[in-house]
Automatic annotation (TrEMBL):
PANTHER family per UniProt: EXCINUCLEASE CHO, UVRC/OXIDOREDUCTASE
Domain GIY-YIG: 33-108
Name of protein: Excinuclease cho
Presence of the UniProt keyword DNA damage in the record: yes
Superkingdom assignment: Bacteria
Length: 287
């Protein structure tokens, strides 16, 4: 009887092939212990290997050097460059902008979603809308940002399940007026479809759930400059409709960035909504 040979495969261990990137050691001396964006470059002048940000560029880059899981990227790297910023806000904005522009090989890709969707209340009814249809920066009653319609619809289903809402009142299914829905018989709907609770009670629970995802409209007539003061220098981040246009050191240079109107940007909103709406930063309204 012939014996079957079995092959035992070992799991890949990055530490076994890791070597300290001595060829990059010389770049450490020029890196500042300050906020900004850093870039690992390979042989290509067009596509960087990796773009990152930190409030301490030097410390963060050195942590890459000690990470065995990044051995492949470190072997491909030929040099490290950096771009200082006044603080964390500037670093976050510049990193997101550069990743979209250069599409680095080892970064999670940040692309401007062509199918960006949200949930909008129209006459009290949640409707899934697209950024192609309306201006998310100016529209009212928007809740959540989703990469496509399916994701937005799934969020509505999740809210319906967690809050015992009726799918028919959420626009997710059709039933005859006054008749209980199928989920009511399963104990998963509180009965707004058949009079067991009022539409007002149903709506209040829906609003409580949606408020956690509220998208704030752009609160200015046009572009603004958000001032960030760091230990090294001062930056003015120019923004319009939650879209980051760039950063300047002097107000006189901001006009050059405020020539092209930009649409809503999801990454810009996530980074800037807190700092702008908190009132903790100086805001300059630009003409």
């Amino acid at each position: 009887m012939r014996k079957r040979l079995t092959t035992v495969r070992r799991e890949f261990d990055p530490a076994e092939i890791y070597q300290y990137p001595e060829h990059l050691r010389s770049f450490i001396d020029s890196l500042p212990a300050a906020p900004g964006v850093y870039v690992f470059h390979g042989d290509s002048d067009v596509m960087p290997l990796y773009i990152g940000k930190s409030i301490n560029i030097r410390s963060r880059v050195m942590s890459h050097f000690r990470t065995a899981e990044e051995a492949r990227m470190l072997r491909q790297a030929r040099r490290v460059s950096y771009y200082p910023t006044a603080g964390e806000i500037g670093a976050l904005l510049l990193e997101a902008q550069m990743i979209k522009q250069y599409q680095p090989l080892h970064n999670k890709r940040l692309r401007r979603s062509r199918q960006l969707c949200s949930i909008q209340l129209v006459n009290g009814m949640p409707v899934i809308v697209s950024a192609k249809e309306i201006d998310f920066a100016r529209a009212a009653d928007l809740y959540g940002l989703f990469s496509n319609r399916h994701s937005a619809q799934q969020r509505l289903l999740d809210i319906g399940d967690s809050e015992f809402l009726c799918y028919s009142l959420l626009g997710l299914e059709r039933i005859s007026h006054g008749r209980p829905c199928f989920r009511f018989h399963l104990g998963r709907c509180a009965g707004a479809c058949c009079g067991k609770e009022t539409p007002q009670e149903h709506h209040l629970r829906l609003m409580d759930a949606l408020q956690q995802m509220r998208i704030f409209s752009w609160p200015y007539a046009g572009a603004i400059g958000l001032v960030e003061q760091g230990a090294g220098f001062r930056q003015i981040h120019v923004v319009n409709n939650w879209y980051y246009l760039g950063s300047v050191n002097n107000l006189s240079d901001a006009a050059a960035l405020n020539k092209v109107a930009k649409n809503f940007d999801r990454d810009g909103y996530k980074i800037l909504s807190g700092p702008i709406l908190s009132g903790r930063h100086e805001i300059i309204e630009l003409e």
